[in-house]
Model the fold of this input.
Amino acid sequence: GENVEQHPSTLSVQEGDSAVIKCTYSDSASNYFPWYKQELGKRPQLIIDIRSNVGEKKDQRIAVTLNKTAKHFSLHITETQPEDSAVYFCAAYFPGGYQKVTFGIGTKLQVIP
Amino acid sequence: NAGVTQTPKFRVLKTGQSMTLLCAQDMNHEYMYWYRQDPGMGLRLIHYSVGEGTTAKGEVPDGYNVSRLKKQNFLLGLESAAPSQTSVYFCASSLGTEAAGYTFGSGTRLTVV
Done:
């Protein structure tokens, strides 16, 4: 089955610095890669996603890049703010009759004011 | 438009007791899922449904049962609760089409003593 590895498990950055979270996946047929943000005590929420036919996608301060050859994708947050502090999950979708989704284990990001 | 609603939000059970968690969505989503979230283990799929009247096992189905009698509702049952089922449970739904992200419920924190 699909395996998704996510690094690092924890990340601390100073406010204003950039943060990068990386994920690798095992199944080359995976075609959709969303990222979820989960604030403490709240539900995961989709923040950005990328399809396999796209190399990069940006939305204000966040961006996701995809390298299909290397089977890895990354979340980039620029000019970090304290409200970016949360757990971030990556996921990889494997197409089929049921969209098989595998989540990464999560990265706890702390932005230090 | 409430999205995905889970009830209850908190529950304490004694070992051996039973309970049902309710998930309701008003987005006309075909796919619904139950996940459990434990520290250091990310999100693990318990059961899922690809449409009304259908259910299937996920990664960690033992000790749980589900039903999807109506498209908008997905019930998760614990017949005989065990301390190992202490967790935060999230319901999610999606359109089921390619590149469809999840909408999560707010979660149920269950403690089994």
Q: What stands out?
A: Chain A touches chain B at residues 31-32, 34, 36, 42-46, 49, 51, 89, 93, 95, 97-99, 101, 103-106 (CB under 8 Å). Chain A has a mean pLDDT of 93. The two ends of chain A are 41 Å apart (CA to CA).
